[in-house]
Amino acid sequence: MIRLTVQMILLAFLVTFVACNPPPLPLDDIVIEKTFTPDRCDRMVKSGDFVRYHYIGMFPDGKKFDSSYDRSTTYNVFVGQKQLIAGMDKALVGMCVNERWMIKIPPQLAYGKDGHGDNIPADSILHFDVLMLDIWNTEDKVQIKTYHKPESCGRTVQVSDYIRYHYNGTLLDGTLFDSSHTRMRTYDTYVGIGWLIAGMDQGLLEMCVGEKRIITLPPFLGYGENGDGSDIPAQASLVFDVVLLDLHNPKDEITVEVQSLPDHCPRKSVVGDFMRYHYNGSLLDGTFFDSSYSRNRTYDTYIGKGYVIAGMDQGLLGVCIGEHRRIVIPPHLAYGEEGTGTKIPGSAVLVFVVHIIDFHNPSDTVEITSVKPENCSNNTKRGDFVKYHYNATLMDGTYIGSTHTFGKTYDVVLGAGQVVIGMEQGLIGMCVGEKRKLVIPPHLAYGERGVDGEVPGSAVLVFDVELVDLEEGLPEGYMFVWNSDVTPNLFSEMDKNKDAQVDATEFSDYIFQQVKEGKGRLAPGFDPQRIIENMYDNQDRNKDGRITEDEFKLKADEAAAHDEL
Question: What reaction does this enzyme carry out catalytically (predicted)?
Answer without folding.
Answer: [protein]-peptidylproline (omega=180) = [protein]-peptidylproline (omega=0)
